[in-house]
Amino acid sequence: MNVRLLPAFLSLITLLATTVAIASELEEVVITATLRPQSPLSLATSATVIDSTTLRETGVQHLQDVLPLVPNLNWASGTSRPRYFQLRGIGESDQWQGAPNPSVGFLIDGMDFSGIGMPATLVDLGQVEVLRGPQGTTLGASALAGLINVRTRAPSTEETLRLEASAGDFGVNSLGLIAGGALGTDDRSAFRFVAQGFRGDGSRRNATLSRDDTNGLDERTLRWRSQHGFGTGWQADFSALIVDVDNGFDAFSTDNSRVTRSDDPGRDRQRSRGASLTLQHKGHETDFRSLTAVVDADILYSFDGDWAADADYDFTSRFLRDRQTLSQDVRWSRETRGLTLIGGLYAQRLTEANDQLDLYGGELYRALVSDYEADSFAGYANVSHSLASRWHANAGLRVERRKAQYRDTDGTDLSPAETMIGGNASIEYRPDDHRMAYLAVARGYKAGGFNIGVVVPTDRREFDAELLYSLEVGYKFDDAVRGLRYDFAMFYMWRRAQQVSTSAQIDPGDPLSFIYLTDNAARGTNLGLEGSVLASVSESWSIGATLGVLRTRFEDYVVADQDFSGRAQAHAPSYQVSMSLDYRHPRGWFARFDAQRVAAFYFSDSHDQRSKPYSLANLRAGYDAGSWRIDAWVRNVLDEDYAMRGFFFGNEPPDYPDKPYVQLADPRSVGVSAVWQVR
Questions:
Q1: Calpha distance 265→305 (Å, rounded)
Q2: Which of 200, 324, 352, 636 has the smallest C-beta neighbourhood within 10 Å, fewest atoms?
């Protein structure tokens, strides 16, 4: 394991701890993704929370802009916006064939977008919470590696009317409206409404069509959130969204440049609609919470399979997916004499229709139409107890029953059912109100599933469930008044019947026969450490840093006559480090600088092609007058060329030699943003 960065990180914490005597106070943080809202200091797991100020000043449009702030979080591209995430090296890199089976849970105001996270636009977000490690008690099968919880900004009775606009190179422009205030004369009810449109040409040039917009962005966001108080101790929180992401996808070229030559550029469209209703009642000793959520997502993903303009070698592929999710979670909690009891029931129905259409010369030559349905039912319980004034114990258990049904036009008819058990236990030591050390063990699980596709061999259709055992030890410090907050965790995880995504090309002359298949490796290990520090070193200056060190390993894994035993897993860089510097003058001037360094990682679990290490830097500076604000931003200041996704196969006639192909990230971009607070 590469731990050379650890001494520098610990030295930074020590230095900051001795220089915060005149610091400004940090904002209080509350995590809502757990079974009950709690501060990070009282949570016995490694977690990162990105608040609304950081989201606004670090990002431009989408969640992907701020992901470098989270240690041991990576994501696989191959799409216009992130859908597939990896936490501590665990997660999917694609889901072209459907049959949703995510390892990283992804929620927006309680709505389950796991595996389809594209609606996470940044406009008016409240905070983003990332919980690393198996969340077997909290979310079950969808959170084997962890959970990303996106919360929109909560409404208030204070009247708000705000306009936001941005413009930049590569055709970037956006306009947004935020309005909110009281609902009627009741000071217990309020609303918040958000509308935004965002466009950009992308950073590719299509030489065949002489266009700059084939990889462009067209994203529209509508959100509503309202809170209502009624009766004695009752509160309702309603959230709804319509996010239409209608982007181009023309990101690959045979020479691995940003100049493409496709004659039929792809699209990456996701039209998402969702709503959630949370009902809560706070009693004298017993609290009640009900969360009902529904999601409807129409997805079109297409690409030019040959990446060129050749009439004799002209392949196009289209995937049309229609997903609906309905979930219900009912939870009770009771606190008495130092004992907190939580019990709940969960049910979810997920359906997805998936059409895969392969075309040659514009004519359909291969098709597969499939339908997938999964019903999940779970019961869970958690108990926390104060053993003494400084010691606390916590234990949780979840039992989940899942039944799936899959049918397609090739005659495949599968209906597996399985019962999975997960849980967690921890012991915590809290010497005072600012410090906490913990030891935690957890068991997570992920359901088995299907490989879906026209050319998938019949004997490789199904794969088994995976189990993950985790051991974690950590230490946290949080003193908001002194302006210092840091945390540190070490973890070791065992993976059993590990689900591994492998690639294969069935026909060398048909690029659309390049497929990914999920198999079960015997086992694997993931271990490492992660930490973060945030300090206000004066009334104007604050500094932050994160560190993730990761070592992953396959055990007894052989595929296609290749032995990968002992090799690192895909999309699992051995280290990620970031640092931020924030300046705020009392008269309104502000600036923020962010830098990140990421180690090389393997693109796939079935070949040895790797990315190169890269460094990123982003800068933002401006003036905030209260009623208006203007700032300038630069993304990728160093204009670094680095790959977000990579493949290894043959796609160039007449000999079709296997070679690496990569999707490059965006080059340097600059722009300005302005905000007018009307009232």
A1: 9
A2: 324
The pLDDT > 90 percentage for the chain reads: 66
Residues 6+ apart with CB under 8 A from 255: none
Among candidates 610, 630, 642, which has minimal Cα distance to 674? 630
Q: What is the DSSP string of 473-494?
A: EEEEEEETTTTEEEEEEEEEEE
**pTM, to two decimals:** 0.93
DSSP H helices, 20-86, are 52-58
Report the C-alpha gap between 415 and 398 in whole angstroms.
23
Low-confidence ranges of the chain (pLDDT < 70): 1-25, 95-99, 453-455, 504-506, 513-514, 560-561, 679
Letter string b/e over residues 481-519, b meaning 16 or more CB atoms within 10 A of that residue's CB: ebbbbbbbbbbebbbbbbbbbbbbbeebebbbbbbbbbb
Encoded tokens for 678: 């009307």
Which domains can be identified in the chain, with CATH numbers? 5-150+218-677 (2.40.170.20)
In angstroms, the CA 46 to CA 55 distance is 20
DSSP states of 382-439: EEEEE-SSSEEEEEEEEEEEEEEEEEETTS-EE--EEEEEEEEEEEEEEEETTEEEEE
- Cα–Cα distances (Å) from 399 to 136, 235, 325, 333, 419, in that order, read 9, 29, 20, 18, 7
Q: Is 10 helix (H, G, I), strand (E, B) or coil?
A: helix
- Do residues 94 and 663 touch, judged by C-beta distance below 8 A? no
Residue 135 main-chain phi, psi, to 5 deg: -105, 55
In the DSSP assignment, the letter for residue 44 is S
